[in-house]
Design a protein that fits this description.
Structural class: alpha+beta
Distance between the termini: 34 Å
CATH topology of the largest domain: Rossmann fold
Number of domains: 2
Radius of gyration: 21 Å
CATH class of the largest domain: Alpha Beta
Helix content: 25-40%
Largest sheet: 6 strands, mixed
Oligomer: single chain
């Protein structure tokens, strides 16, 4: 099950209550079985101990015997991909290395309940994929209850059959993930514009361009296309990550993510900017599609909440596509231009 909603909606607080880290001011929270939680990067690790020592310590904290941890040690380290760093004190680890090791221990501790916050987003792309596959494996075996908190709605729809939309500590919707996500995005779209004095950026125009660079609302299956975002930064944006997602009626189909597709600018100064995300041929089935924009700095800071900003249609006969559409980025903000992506 996924918990979705804006920053401050109560998602992490709900996980902390389930984990027993926080106590409810009223009511009760009941859990059954061994609970493994990944709420804070490096929680349960001792900074002065090595990675090897922390695996043994954290495994015991999660309910394994010392012998069980030792038996699973090689598998844990291989999963984390940190073989060369296990004798290094974890105080020298990056946040991504922390997250990889913590997750590797947790998923090898045979939990009955696994609580996962956005902490996984700090890992590299290969590790994120490996982690998601492991959680899907847990889900399909039906042996582990997973509560997943993420702003990555594509990952939510891929992994979770059910979702709960939280808003200011209250449940706004609960049910099948696709339905709840659609309701959430429609609400974000319909809400009045946020106070511009507090906005990080204004997305003035999001348009779809054909392979010749002309604005269009019709994209052919066999042709590449571009999504162009024009806007204005209200303040300096540190390491902004633009994410453009193409959505169908039943959820996201593919996305361009600056973080995943390549490097992103170290900063965008106040003033006007243009960002282009070029997609390869989509092979999409005929129909109507929505283009969603999100801009973030990291897993905790959203510069621009996800919302649908453009639509296009695809003519022709039905094809199976949209599974792996490459993306290339171009960002213009002041001088010189920065070319971003692969």
């Amino acid at each position: 099950m996924a918990l979705i909603g804006r920053n401050g909606a109560g998602k992490t607080t709900a996980l902390r209550l389930i984990a027993g880290i926080s106590r409810p001011t009223k009511g009760t929270v009941q859990t059954h079985g061994n609970v493994a939680s990944l709420l804070n990067v490096g929680a349960g690790f001792h900074r002065e101990l090595t990675g090897r020592e922390n695996v043994l310590l954290n495994g015991v904290i999660l309910g394994l015997s010392r012998k069980q941890v030792q038996q699973r040690y090689d598998t844990i380290v291989e999963f984390a991909g940190l073989e060369a760093f296990m004798d290094t004190p974890v105080k020298h680890f990056s946040s991504g290395m922390y997250a990889r090791l913590a997750f590797a221990v947790a998923v090898h501790a045979d939990p009955d309940v696994l609580l996962v916050d956005e902490v996984l987003s700090v890992g590299d792309t290969a590790f994120q994929d490996r982690s998601l596959r492991r959680m899907i494996e847990f889900r399909d075996r039906g042996r582990v209850a997973i509560v997943f908190v993420s702003h990555n709605l594509a990952a939510v729809e891929l992994m979770c059959a059910r979702a709960v939309w939280l808003d200011r500590g209250a449940v706004r919707a609960s049910g099948p993930s696709a339905d709840v996500i659609r309701a959430y995005l429609d609400n974000v779209d319909d809400e009045a514009s946020i106070d511009q004095g507090e906005a990080h950026l204004i997305a003035e125009c999001v348009e779809v361009l054909d392979c010749r660079g002309n604005p269009t609302d019709v994209i052919r299956q066999e042709e590449p296309f571009i999504v162009r975002v024009r806007g204005q930064a209200q303040r300096t944006l540190i390491e902004p990550v633009f994410v453009v997602t193409v959505r169908g009626d039943h959820g996201p189909l593919f996305a361009g993510n600056m973080h995943i597709d390549g490097n992103w600018p170290s900063r965008v100064p106040p003033g006007r900017f243009t960002v282009e995300c070029g997609f390869g041929a989509s092979g999409l089935a005929p129909g109507r599609y929505r283009v969603e924009l999100k801009v973030k700095q990291n897993v905790r800071t959203n510069y621009y909440e996800p919302r649908v900003k453009a639509t296009f249609s695809v003519p022709g006969e039905a094809l199976v596509g949209g599974a792996d559409v490459p993306a290339t980025w171009r960002c213009t903000a002041g001088q010189p231009d920065a070319i971003i992506g692969r």
